[in-house]
Fold:
Amino acid sequence: MKFGLRLRGGLLATLIMFGAPVIAPVGAVFVSSSALAQTVQSISVQGNRRVEVETIRSYFKPGPGGHLDQGAIDDGLKALIETGLFQDVRINRGPGGQIIVSVVENPVIGRVAFEGNKKIKDEQLTTEVQSKARGTFSRAMVQSDTLRIAEIYRRSGRYDVRVTPEIIEQPNNRVDLIFTIEEGAKTGVKSIEFVGNNAFSSYRLRDVIKTRESNLLSFLASGDIYDPDRVEADRDLIRRFYLKHGFADVQVVAALTEYDPEKKGFNVTFKIEEGAQYRVGAVDFRSSIPNFDPSSMRGYSRVNVGSLYNVESVEKSVEEMQIEASRRGFAFAVVRPGGDRYFEAHTVSVVFNIDEGPRTYIERINLRGNTRTRDYVIRREFDISEGDAYNRALVDRAERRLKNLDYFKSVKIATEPGSSSDRVILVVDMEEKSTGDFSISGGYSTTDGALAEVSVSERNLLGRGLFAKAAVTYGQYARGYSLSFVEPYLLDYRVALGLDLYQRQQLSNSYISYGTKTLGFSPRLGFSLREDLSLQLRYSIYQQEITLPSYLANCNNNLGTSAFNPSPAFAASQIPPLDLSSTNGLGCYSDGEASLPVRKELANGKTLTSALGYTLTYNTLDNNKNPTDGLLIDFRQDFAGVGGDVSYLKTVADGKYYAPLVSDIVGIVRLQGGILTKINDDLRMLDHFQMGPNLVRGFAPNGIGPRDLNPFGTQDALGGTKYWGASLELQMPFWFLPKEVGLKGAVYADAGGLYDYKGPTSWTATNEVNVPGCIPSTVNPSSTGTCTGLVYDDSKVIRSSVGVGLIWQSPFGPLRFDYAVPLSKGKYDRTQEFRFGGGTTF
Structure:
């Protein structure tokens, strides 16, 4: 608090003339007219201990002639009080009109301590308060620190916090400052309501905002903690959501918050004025720049006539056009969107105006806040540098890229005036965050059983923007390890180089009789062709071998050998039929027998595969984790035969389309298919497609397609070289449950097929037709061909099913439960009506 009193003119002169006694308040100034002739050296200082006399005198600035007038004395008094060094400052008149400055110095803080704080550490509070050990004590500063501490706790959701400062006096004008804190319980958001929303339900809008309602699992997250900044940001998210869906006049009028003492939490209400929904009536392009054809920008527009007005599409169009204009040599071109609303027709005519902007250059790019991340990691996200023309679209793109790196809590790029009117300085303010992760994950599924994984990863290794991860997996049926490394800017180009080294072991289970061991290495290159289109090139080299219990491979069924080891079909054709379960030397199948292709892979030993491949991905999903709108298409091809022991061409396509329907119901259409083509060598069984619930739900893993018909063997799935699948699914929320529970239901129908096995069917091809015991027809349905030692089913049956599912976006990770009933199936297919899968990180 400042104290001061200024008396001027006749009143002061009259009081002095008549010698009227006056009691001087703190900071009052009473000097005679003779004092006006005093100099700084005439000022006498009393009461100071630490502050030097000359320092105090320096606050009094003399006027012309070196003399102090009344205004200079008043200004000096105020300046001394504002320093915060003194509890009291008085100015009095001494003998001969001498000015006497009496001060009482503020104490020195011996230590600053915090008591009662458990949720926020002393170190964090110390950096936030202004009162410091060995600093000057100020009651105003202590009051400010008290409010600051309370604000920190409120930001963490504790609105019942109580902060009490305690001052303990010590000798030699020193004090200890103790802040006693009663933290209180967290104050959550008990309800979120929306008023004025007609086009979208409250359930849908709760998915748009970041604030969440408190529930039983809120202790695992912090979205339910009331944060006024988050609520304010939610207003903008709601507005952007409406603008994306054609509501050009939308206004989020207010976000009202009210504390409910009974519930001990906040009720948040968003008031919305939606307005009408608009479609694009026309799109036009205009230019005021000579020799610039505006119609050439039409190919860079993402706004189409007849579509819903989408402000994000307009913004992306502006960015693409402005960047393209800069590439064509018009560095200062500015694209400004405009248009007219037609209220009766509910249409918007969009006009992109291309004008010459101010000729402004970038003088410098200043980086602030990157304590760990190297400067070049940040600067390479800019498509502009010092000396280039200032282009706002490129600056916005750089800011978006920096945010997407996920290295920083916040990123903000602002401009400051440069050394001249045509120069600007870009200032990049960042706040670093932790980029390392250590996780222990666990899960269970009906396919893989129990599974656990320990992984360590770093997204910004050594501050150089590198990604590295090491993971070890150990489960009931799957084990292995993997090492991954990614350099996102190979040779300073926007090309990502990835290296993967892995070892996997799949154990036999109820779905397959054999196990596999795979050791591989795969380098890859990733290119971003557009924001919605990416390309990955890869090379894979891996060694694979089959493991099989000895009792499943103790009879080779090689008809060309002298040993008589009959096949089941041959045994059944004899009169009387042979008893293969006996132990008289003829019973190869008395203890079971793996399928012929499996045993042949076992006999071949380790196989090396060397393949080149690529993946082209088109992605327009609105949310990669929980999509409700958009298209995702993957097209992959792998060519094996660049060295190695096998050769083939494998082509796979997978497309998913998400569309919002009515009442928060999301429709999903999925189409998939694949073809395996033989190049030179014979195809292995392991290279075939194996399908089950990943194609048609309601079937067991490896439960669809060609299968060994040996009734005394393991009847392994052989796989196929062609498959197709189609699925239609409706996902809907449980409206009677809080949004924060994360539960959704699903109903679906699947159809698909897997067929055309082209793997090994015999051990050898040497004159088998003349060998006794050869069976010429071994395929179901029967076909003409040479004799083989494998009898299998390869009927082209369409498999189909319908089912229901429960999807839970739980704090433990995504979980899904499915119950599907097959409607049509092959004679030898295996079904599995219930399926569960999920995992967690803790």
Observations:
- Residues 1-36, 557-564, 582-587, 765-788 have pLDDT under 50 and may be disordered.
- The longest helix spans residues 139-155.
- The CA atoms of residues 461 and 467 lie 6 Å apart.
